Amino acid sequence: MALNSEAPWDQFCPDDYVKRNYATPLDVDKKIVRLVGKHLVDHFGGGLRGPVKGVDVGAGANLYPALCMLPWCSGITLLEKAPKNLDYLRKQADPAGSGFDTAWDAFWDELAAYPEYAAVHDERRELFGKAADPRPGDLLELGGTTERWGVGAMFFVAESMSSSREEFLAAVDRFLGVLEPGAPFAAAFMLQSEGYEVGAYEFPAYKVDQPEVARALDPLAQKVTYHELDFTLRDGHEGMLLTLGFRRSD
Question: Cys staple from 82: which of 12, 121, 190, 221, with CB 3.0 to 4.6 Å?
Fold first, then answer.
């Protein structure tokens, strides 16, 4: 068994990760972005609710979850454990810079099909620079925080940080636990993952299927929809699962 504390997070290379996964946008990621965008548009009603604080736990070198939350957030916490990923996020969010890399425009273009995103199209880089707050932190240690967020994302994190079932369950619990009652969320999982490589380093994973994800979400989530995506990014997993729902309010 490989625990989260034992994985080589100091060696996680965001440049390799982005080049391998996002430099050429995949149809499956475009579909995920469209589904998440619709979920948030349906909830926030064109800005009738908000602004709220958003959080992306284990943000890594992936900006599209934060871009999905952007129109409705006064701030977006990008919680990240790996030091090089934090450096990447800080560069992408630097308000004194030129804005996030053009590689992410393809994902924004999917969101811009919705009027709520199209309305802030010209300001998207400026808004991201103002809202994004890269912050060092460990998802498993969120249980002690009293801070709460009004919308949340967790993409390919809970099952991709260790091979421990206990840590997988704890990660899902910590994520949902920091959301305000009724807050919308989006969480994605690699199904039956055996682990993965970034650069020259191997990272652990815990094998999950849809029933196990549902059991993990059930104590703190409500009105969850499940989208099983028949796409394999690499050898050693059996598709992806996108879950869209809300933090329990009872």
Answer: 12
Mean pLDDT of the 158-181 span? 96
Neighbours of 144 (CB within 10 A): 6
Nearest Cα to Cα of residue 61 among 30, 119, 100: 100
DSSP code, position 180: P
Residue 43's domain is classified under what CATH number? 3.40.50.150
For the record, the structure tokens of 65 come out as 């979850």
- Between 3 and 48, name the one with better pLDDT: 3
pLDDT band at 195 (very low <50, low <70, confident <90, very high): confident
Lowest mean pLDDT of 39-53, 54-68, 120-134, 204-218, name the range.
Answer: 39-53
CA distance 138 to 153: 15
> Comparing C-alpha atoms, which of 165, 144, 168, 164 is closest to residue 154?
168
Q: How many domains does the chain have?
A: 1
Q: What is the pLDDT of residue 46?
A: 59
Domain that holds residue 99: 4-247
- How would you label 206-226 residue by residue, b for 16+ Cβ within 10 Å and e otherwise? bbbeeebbeebbeebbeeeee
Residue position matching structure tokens 């020259």: 200
**How far lies 109's CA from each of 73, 194, 235, in Å?**
19, 32, 29
Residue 237 has pLDDT above 90, yes or no: no
pTM: 0.94
Closest CA to 175 of 207, 137, 130, 206: 137
